[in-house]
């Protein structure tokens, strides 16, 4: 397996924001905004579906700290936390990662979908999810 994020972690060649035992943060090649940061678990996990809870918790704790640093260091008034997992999600790198994007009012970018999905569900989606969670 030749995962680009695993290679960056192994070789230490990223523009690091933070390096911790379970998670790390670095600048992406094409940032959406000044300070845009990627947070990834240090061990390879393709997405949210196969990431152990401890690695997910460590990654989210770092996401939270990075977001707080964006408020103090960059005067960001908000952040977007973006992640995609699985083939239907437009995931670009098959290693769990979170984009932490600092935001400011009138910054000219949008990250929210412009319309609803064309996908329809048979049955009430909330009920289907609740039933699946009871069986998990």
From TrEMBL:
Matches recorded under InterPro entries: Histidine_triad_CS (IPR019808), Histidine_triad_HIT (IPR001310), HIT-like (IPR011146), HIT-like_sf (IPR036265)
Any Pfam family hit: HIT
Species assigned in the record: Streptomyces virginiae
Short motif (Histidine triad motif): ranges: 95-99
PANTHER family assigned: ADENOSINE 5'-MONOPHOSPHORAMIDASE HNT1 (PTHR46648:SF1), HIT FAMILY PROTEIN 1 (PTHR46648)
Domain HIT, first and last residues per copy: 4-110
UniProt protein name: HIT domain-containing protein
SUPFAM superfamilies the record matches: HIT-like
Top-level taxon: Bacteria
């Amino acid at each position: 397996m030749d995962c680009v994020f695993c290679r960056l972690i192994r070789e230490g060649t990223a523009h690091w924001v933070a390096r911790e035992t379970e998670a790390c943060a670095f600048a992406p090649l094409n940032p959406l905004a000044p300070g845009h940061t990627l947070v990834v678990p240090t061990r390879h996990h393709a997405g949210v579906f196969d990431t152990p809870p401890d690695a997910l918790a460590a990654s989210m704790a770092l996401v939270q700290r990075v977001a707080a640093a964006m408020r103090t260091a960059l005067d960001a008034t908000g952040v977007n936390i973006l992640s995609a997992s699985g083939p239907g999600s437009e995931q670009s790198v098959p290693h769990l990662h979170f984009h932490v994007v600092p935001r400011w009012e009138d910054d000219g970018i949008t990250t929210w979908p412009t319309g609803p999905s064309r996908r329809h569900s048979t049955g009430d989606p909330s009920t289907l999810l609740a039933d699946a969670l009871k069986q998990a």
